[in-house]
Amino acid sequence: MAQLVAEQLSEHGPSGGHGHAQDPEHAQNPYLAHHFDTPRHQFEAGKLGIWIFLITEILFFGGLFCAYAIYRSLHPEVFIYAHYYLDTFWGAVNTGVLILSSLTAAWAVRNAQLGQRQMLIFNIVATVILACCFLCVKYVEYSHKFHERTLPGRYFNPEHEVWELPSYQKAHAHAAGHTAAALESHGEAAAPQAEPVPPGTPPALGGAEVKQAPPGAPVRPRNVGVFFSIYFCMTGLHGIHVVAGIITWLWILRKTLRGEFGPSNFGAVDYAALYWHLVDLIWIYLFPLLYLIH
Amino acid sequence: MSDHKHAGNGSPESGDEQRGGHDTELAHVTPVRLLLTIWGALMVLTVMTVGVTLVDFGGQTNFVIAMAIATVKAGLVATYFMHLRWDRPFHTLIFLGSLLFVSLFISMTLLDKSEYEGSIQEMYLKKGQ
Q1: Which of B18, B35, B101 sits opposite A103 (nearest CB)?
Q2: Does some domain include residue A262?
Q3: Which CATH number do you get for residue A255?
Q4: Total beta-carbon pairs less than 8 A apart between chain A and chain B
Q5: What is the pTM of this model?
Q6: What is the CB neighbour count within 10 angstroms for residue A239?
Q7: What's the confidence (pLDDT) of residue A4?
Q8: In a domain, A179, yes or no
Q9: Number of domains observed in the structure of chain A
Q10: Which of A58, B39, B50, B55 could disulfide-link to B98, CB 3.0 to 4.6 Å?
């Protein structure tokens, strides 16, 4: 279309006012917008734009990281207690999936730059599939949390006490009495703020039997639900970004199938990949912060 | 650097796009071998960060190690996958600038974190918990 416009404009003659209509750069490159002089001009402007967007994203997530920092520094015992409810295995799998998708995204940029259409399509599709895998794992994790009722704030009412969890038992297999020491060794101490679970309290839905804590089992600190508020906010916001990434990649795929990308026009692939790497980068921090609390 | 490649070289499908002419070399093309190396390093670091949790270093050391590994990973992603190494330094500058402001935000807020702890404890005392 831009080409058509360029042709129409050029009918006004070479001396006609606006100048760039006769510019061979614009006449030959349908993907060079008329307000940019050269493909480089267009590419650099887009690149600066996407970087500024990424900066706002970092600041946006900064608020949640701040909430995390405040609550963890005030109540480390809550984080130690709550992290047994997360499955490190799935967190690690998702980390691997996202890192692999970052590789395919970076490779896609290379393919676009070199005009390798088949490989570009392959890498975009791979990125989308990996992003969907990430969301599937997230679905498994979230539904498990809903079933277990390890939910945010006052809705935290778990089906299982912490000592019943495999992750807890594994960590404390050879030192049953080590438990209390482990919790207390992390500063502020569980003891004064702890709220012992009354033995008569029904643990959860339909839990008729009274669970007797084994000796040395940690008492549940107050407000464990806040950890899950932070967990769901951080992973949820990240998940929304993954969904947005999938939509972006599908849009890039559509443009690829139309044959829009090549050595002088690969900006959109590059920008999408930069966004995708940022999503990966945030997960790189979320994984140890949420799953690998020691 | 020897691994610089000119965009468009040796690609059979690029002819059509190259009509634009001289300005095809818009950005550095990352070699496949480098991409795979970075990916391998990221995977190794991920395994490392999980493995490190099995050892108790005491105090805050585990947390510091986990964050250090995460930062190395983030650095690799930003430097190579995000092209910052070959990009305009200005992009690195604003990227690091945003991290600076996030850390200012968090550390300034942390300075103030215990401001209301007294009244919170009082509230729990009143509620008898």
Answers
A1: B35
A2: yes
A3: 1.20.120.80
A4: 192
A5: 0.81
A6: 17
A7: 52
A8: no
A9: 1
A10: A58
